[in-house]
Every structure is written in structure tokens, then in C-alpha cells.
TrEMBL record:
Keywords: DNA-binding, Metal-binding, Nucleus, Transcription, Transcription regulation, Zinc. The lineage of its organism: Eukaryota, Fungi, Dikarya, Ascomycota, Pezizomycotina. This is Zn(2)-C6 fungal-type domain-containing protein. Pfam families: Fungal_trans_2 (PF11951), Zn_clus (PF00172). Residues 29-40 have a biased composition (Basic residues).
Length: 712
């Protein structure tokens, strides 16, 4: 019997037995495809392209030396490389302000279209009922006539820019309607690519200078390259609109293009052209509404879909709020009503200048069923308030900037009641923002909407007052605005810090004066939050009102600090511009006052309850200027994350049942000023601000007049 062992029948062949049989097939076996790995985040450009580990030696890494390659350099370091540098929103590269890079010709925009004759009657867009929930459809750039570079910008718009433009509130206009229109309208496609390139410009403009070694860099991936593409696409969008046929099918496209181009102009800081775009869209919308009214339809409907009407509603509200704050001259004033001859102020007016949809307004419910319903109701109410005040100013011709006669205050009582009814219906939503399961975005939406309601309530009631002293009764409400803004900024900073610096020990964003507790010093900056732009409402306007109208020093300076903490542009509202105007007003009104102490800013911060009550053994910190470092206390900011603020006494007062603050020195009437005019250019970073007295008729000599030029 042989001693050889044989494998059992049916068993797989052993490697030894299969070598001879498969040796001839080995050469014919296809090579295994290389597994795709994630893109290398660090290292030189050569190693990143080869997807290998780089030792990051300088001026050349070991891999490049070993392979006898020229090390092409390292990508620009993150913003953390310059933690103490102030970051500004600058979509247009600084180099583009003076001259283009060598070898490039300056880019000239096509001539502005000659504006058509202003319509005799301009009616604002009406707020429709909430649209039905739509299923989001993704549109791939492969189906659109884009080259490779344009396709990347379109994808960036789809994945990031649309969400950023929506702000705190979700919008089907940006996420669905605009993307769908790109398939059929060239002007919309070019405008979308322009906005995507502009966001890429912002991203590159806020990067640090590249590190060593210096080498050839991809010019198309520079801030100037993205800006160049943005301007070219903007120009092509304007050209497509000029070539479009003036038929009824193009009206919707023109309205949508007006929104996109207004956002582009606001983004780059050209607020005047943004207002022109809004005026053009409102004029076309009124023209279409007039045609429908002349058709004697039994129930005329809006000429375009509800979400596009809603966008114009919000743009009109935004433009009016901007004009009320900075008092623009003609023709950069958006009108919501038809100009009429002066009438007796004691006679109430009707909504005769409104569109058919505005003739009936659904009453405010006892409780809002959703945040979306509350937002739609607020947009409708805010628009009608602006239309009412504009009509009153046209008819009374009082000649006093921003002030209506007290004799007609009774005619605005219905708006006061409606705002209070809205606040009551919103109360359960406001309280629910701290409930488990509520997303960070929804918390921010709730906070921002409440901030706007409080701000509008105060400003509307003060429209009938000719004294700046009247704002003092709303100090508690100003504190609510600041607290809600702290929640928003604190939550943004917390999420950004977790995403960008998971290990706080290796975080290089925080400045040397920043506290580890987050919002812990008076010169605090939310350094993890990137500069942002959105087309919707946010925290800047309410904080500007607090910073300029609240004379409680602690509250005012916290509002200014929040404006400076993170650079953001919300429509035409710029945080840097508003912060600097507010700082100048505060310097004028508080000149000669004592230094701002820890007790002034936070009466109970960092002390026991007995010490907070003023016990004989209480201790206080030394007085510090506003730009010093002061701990905000140990109380966490509710749902806001790592931002912190002081504990306040539980005493309640004010219109909204908020906590009252200890009494402090009152700024006298003769030292209080208001903004009379602002002429500014966000692209050149300067503003000429004029201050003066409240309640003086136009043309009356004003001893409080102050004019200054602010640059940044």
C-alpha cells in the first residue's frame, strides 16, 4: 500500500496541487483595482495627489526628495493659523479692489439696464397660505449644459450655498424651485453658478496666506479665480435676461432672476443695486397683478407660485427695515404703497392699494400649529405694518423723521393687539425650544422669530413718540433679545467647535484672552464660526436696535459684542457695519461716565446668592474697561451650548414677563442721539454716519448733529 496521502473526493485542491494548474492563468488574471481612499487632508500637493503619507518636512518632504520630484508646496493653512486676526466678510478679494493679478485684464460688467418708467402704483407682495410640503428633488449637474468648472459651482450651490442662503429657515425656493428652473432657463443657471462661485470666493478669501515652500498654485482655485468666474456668470445672467422675449412665459423667470441677482448684489455689498433689483421685481409683480384685476376674474389669483411671492414679501420687508434704520435717499427707497395726497390724519385709511389677496387676512389662531405657520403669519403682519406706517407718513407729511403724530396712534392700536396675539400664540413654541428632540436649527429659528417680534413691537410703538427716553421702558425686552441672540451664537459656536476642533487641547482658534468656558470675556469672538451670508432674516437687525436704542450699558455692550463676535451678512445687513455705528453712538452717549465695571455688566456673576444681594462681606472685581477680560459667570446658556451669561434675578417685569435688571445711571435726554443718515460702501469698507436729535422737523438747526467717517 502506498504511503502517499490523497485529498478526499470533492475537497478543494491544496495550494501545492493547484500551483501547477494555475501557473499559466496567473499572467492572464486581471489586476486588482486599487481601492479608493479618502482624500488626504494634509501634506504637500504631490503627496495629496498620490494619496500617500507625507512627513510634511519643509522646504520639501522626504517622498518628493526620494522620488526626485519638485515639491509643489503645501495648501494654505486653516484659519487657525491666524487666531488673533479679525475675520471679515469679503466675497470680493482684496486684490480685486485695486488691480487684478498680473496678466489678467480687469473684468467689466455690462451696462446696467435702463430702468423702465416707474409704475404709478406699486403694491407689495402678499403673504399666501403656507404651501404644501413638497418632496425635495435633487438635480444633478450632469443633465445641465455645464462645463466641468461650472458643474462644480452648481454642485456647491446645491449642496451648500442653497442651505446657507435659506438662513435659519428651510426654503423650498432655494432647495427646489431654483434648481428646477436651471433646467430650462439660462439666466437662472448662470445666476446659480455665480452664487456658487461667490461662496467659494468667500471661503478662499478667509484663508491664511499659503505656507512655504512657495510654488506654482492653481490659479482657478484662488480667491481671484472664483471671483472672476462669479462676475462672468453674473454678467451672462444679465445678458440672458436682456435677450429674453417679453412674453408671459418669461415673467416668472424675470421675477426669480431678480431675487437671485439681488442676493448677489447684497452679498458683494452693493446694496443700492440690490434695492434696484427688488424694485424691478416688485414693479413687474404689480404689473402682472394689475392685468389680472383688469380681466374681471371672479377670484383673481397670484400670477406666480406662493413661494416666489413669499420671497418678494421677505425682500420687501428687509429693504424697508434697512431704509428705516439708515434713511436712504431717493431713488433707493422701496415703496409698498401708492403715493397719495396728504389727508386729514384723523381719518383712517383703507388697504385700497393692496392686491386682491390682501383684502382678507386670516385671524391669528389661539396657538400656532407649527413654526412654519408662525413664520407665514409674521411675514404677513410685518408687511401690513410697514404698509400702514408708510401710508401714514405719506398722508400726514409731518416733516419729522420717523415720527408719526400721537393723534393717530389709535389707528395703529389694531397692529399692537395683533402683535400681542401673535406673541401669545407663539408662546408654547418658544417654550418648546428647550425640549428634547428639537434640532439646533429649529431652536435658532424660534429664537430669531421671537427677536423680530419684540423688536418690531418696540419700534412700532415708538413711532408715535418724539423722545428717546421712551425706549427705557423696554429695557427688560432688550435683555430678552440679547439672551436669545446668545443662544443662537452660542449654539453655532459649540457645533462649529465640535466639528472643527474635536479635541479642545489642540484648538488654535481661541485668542489668548478668550476663556475656556466659551463666552467668557468682553472681547470674545466666536472664532470657530466661519463668515456667512444668508438672504433671510437673522440676529443682526434686532441686535443693532438694542445697541443703538437701549441705554442700559451692560445690555448695550453685550449686543455690540455679539455683533462683533462672528462676521455675518444677512441680506443687506452687515454685522461689522452695524457694530461700528453702535460703538460710535455708545461713545457719544456714554462720554464722561464711569468705567464699566463687573457689577455693571453682571451683578451676580461668579458670586454666591448672599454676595449678589449686597451683603457686607461681598467681594467685587476691579473695574475694567469694556475691552478688558471679564468672566461671564458659570451659568450655561440654556440650549445655546457653550456660550455663557450671568445669572439674573428672578424678578419679572416688562411686556413679556422677563426678568428686570438692577437700576443704573440713566443717560439724560440731552446726550441721546439717533441715526439721521448713513452713506456707506461695504465693498470699500467705509461709512459716513450722521447723528442728530429725535423729533426735530426737517430743516430745523440741530445742535446735536455729529458726522463721522468710519472705516474698517
Amino acid at each position: 500500500m502506498s504511503s502517499e496521502s490523497h485529498p478526499p473526493t470533492g475537497a478543494p485542491p491544496t495550494p501545492a496541487s493547484s500551483n501547477g494548474r494555475n501557473s499559466g492563468d496567473a499572467a492572464q488574471k486581471p489586476r486588482r483595482a486599487r481601492t479608493s481612499k479618502p482624500k488626504v487632508k494634509t501634506g504637500c500637493n504631490n503627496c495629496k495627489q498620490r494619496r500617500i503619507k507625507c512627513d510634511e518636512k519643509r522646504p520639501a518632504c522626504a517622498n518628493c526628495i526620494r522620488s526626485k520630484k519638485t515639491c509643489s508646496g503645501y495648501p494654505p493653512p486653516a484659519r487657525s493659523a491666524r487666531p488673533f486676526e479679525e475675520i471679515r466678510i469679503a466675497p470680493k478679494p482684496i486684490v480685486a479692489v485695486s488691480a487684478p493679478p498680473p496678466g489678467r485684464e480687469p473684468i467689466q460688467l455690462p451696462p446696467r439696464r435702463v430702468q423702465k418708467m416707474q409704475q404709478r402704483r406699486i403694491t407689495p407682495p402678499m403673504t399666501p397660505s403656507p404651501p404644501p410640503v413638497a418632496v425635495l428633488t435633487l438635480h444633478r449637474p450632469t443633465t445641465l449644459p455645464f462645463d466641468s468648472q461650472e458643474g462644480l459651482y452648481f454642485q456647491l450651490f446645491q449642496e451648500q450655498t442653497a442651505n446657507e442662503l435659506s438662513g435659519f429657515f428651510d426654503s423650498t425656493f432655494w432647495a427646489r424651485s431654483v434648481l428646477q428652473e436651471c433646467h430650462s432657463e439660462a439666466s437662472i443657471r448662470h445666476a446659480v453658478v455665480a452664487l456658487g462661485a461667490l461662496y467659494k470666493t468667500l471661503e478662499k478669501s478667509t484663508e491664511s496666506p499659503p505656507g512655504s515652500p512657495t510654488g506654482e498654485r492653481d490659479a482657478s482655485d484662488s480667491a481671484w479665480g472664483h471671483w472672476e468666474m462669479a462676475v462672468k456668470q453674473y454678467s451672462r445672467a444679465c445678458q440672458e435676461l436682456m435677450l429674453a422675449s417679453p412674453d408671459s412665459s418669461s415673467h416668472r423667470t424675470r421675477l426669480m432672476a431678480s431675487v437671485l441677482l439681488a442676493c448677489f448684489d447684497s452679498f458683494i455689498g452693493d446694496h443700492k443695486q440690490a434695492i434696484v433689483q427688488i424694485q424691478t421685481g416688485l414693479g413687474l409683480l404689480e404689473q402682472l397683478r394689475t392685468e389680472r384685476r383688469r380681466a374681471f376674474l371672479p377670484k383673481p389669483e397670484e400670477p406666480v407660485e406662493a413661494e416666489l411671492i413669499q420671497m418678494f414679501t421677505r425682500l420687501a420687508i428687509q429693504a424697508k427695515s434697512y431704509d428705516m434704520a439708515f434713511h436712504f435717499p431717493q431713488p433707493f427707497v422701496v415703496r409698498l404703497t401708492q403715493p397719495t395726497a396728504p389727508q386729514d390724519p384723523s381719518s383712517p385709511t383703507s388697504d385700497s392699494g393692496s392686491s386682491p389677496v390682501s383684502l382678507y387676512q386670516d385671524p391669528i389662531p389661539e396657538h400656532f400649529s407649527s413654526l412654519l405657520e408662525a413664520r407665514f403669519k409674521w411675514d404677513a403682519l410685518a408687511e401690513r405694518i410697514f404698509r400702514f406706517t408708510e401710508t401714514m407718513f405719506n398722508q400726514t407729511q409731518s416733516g419729522v423723521m420717523g415720527i408719526l403724530p400721537t393723534s393717530i396712534r389709535q389707528h395703529g392700536a389694531r397692529f399692537k393687539m395683533e402683535m400681542e396675539a401673535w406673541s401669545d400664540a407663539f408662546e408654547h413654541i418658544l417654550a418648546s425650544r428647550t425640549a428634547p428632540g428639537v434640532s439646533s436649527q429649529e431652536k435658532a429659528c424660534i429664537a430669531v422669530l421671537k427677536m423680530y417680534q419684540i423688536m418690531s413691537y418696540i419700534l412700532f410703538l415708538m413711532t408715535f413718540s418724539d423722545s428717546e427716553m421712551g425706549f427705557d421702558k423696554y429695557t427688560a425686552d432688550f435683555n430678552v433679545i440679547v439672551d436669545l441672540a446668545l443662544e443662537v451664537v452660542g449654539d453655532e459656536e459649540r457645533r462649529a467647535a465640535i466639528k472643527r476642533c474635536p479635541d479642545p487641547r489642540f484648538c488654535h482658534h481661541r485668542g489668548r484672552h478668550d476663556s475656556e468656558a466659551g463666552f467668557g470675556s468682553l472681547n470674545y469672538a466666536a472664532r470657530h464660526i466661519k463668515p456667512s451670508f444668508s438672504a433671510d432674516l437673522g440676529i443682526v437687525p434686532p441686535l443693532f436696535v438694542v445697541a443703538t436704542k437701549c441705554r442700559d450699558r451692560a445690555t448695550r455692550h453685550k449686543a455690540i459684542q455679539l455683533l462683533k463676535s462672528s462676521p455675518r451678512r444677512e441680506g443687506m445687513w452687515d454685522s461689522e457695519l452695524t457694530a461700528r455705528i453702535a460703538m460710535w453712538i455708545a461713545d457719544i452717549e456714554e462720554a464722561g461716565d464711569n468705567e464699566l465695571s463687573l457689577d455693571d455688566m453682571f451683578p451676580t456673576a461668579g458670586r454666591s446668592p448672599s454676595e449678589s444681594a449686597g451683603s457686607p462681606g461681598s467681594t467685587t472685581s476691579s473695574n475694567l474697561r469694556f475691552n478688558g477680560s471679564i468672566d461671564f459667570g458659570d451659568a450655561a446658556l440654556g440650549p445655546g451650548g457653550n456660550a455663557r451669561y450671568s445669572r439674573r434675578e428672578s424678578q419679572t417685569s416688562g411686556l413679556f414677563g422677563v426678568r428686570a435688571q438692577p437700576k443704573r445711571a440713566v443717560i439724560p435726554e440731552d446726550r441721546r442721539v439717533m441715526v439721521r443718515a448713513v452713506e456707506f460702501d461695504l465693498r470699500e469698507r467705509f461709512a459716513i454716519v450722521q447723528l442728530g436729535s429725535r423729533g426735530l422737523p426737517t430743516g430745523t438747526p440741530d445742535l446735536k448733529t455729529r458726522v463721522t467717517r468710519i472705516t474698517w
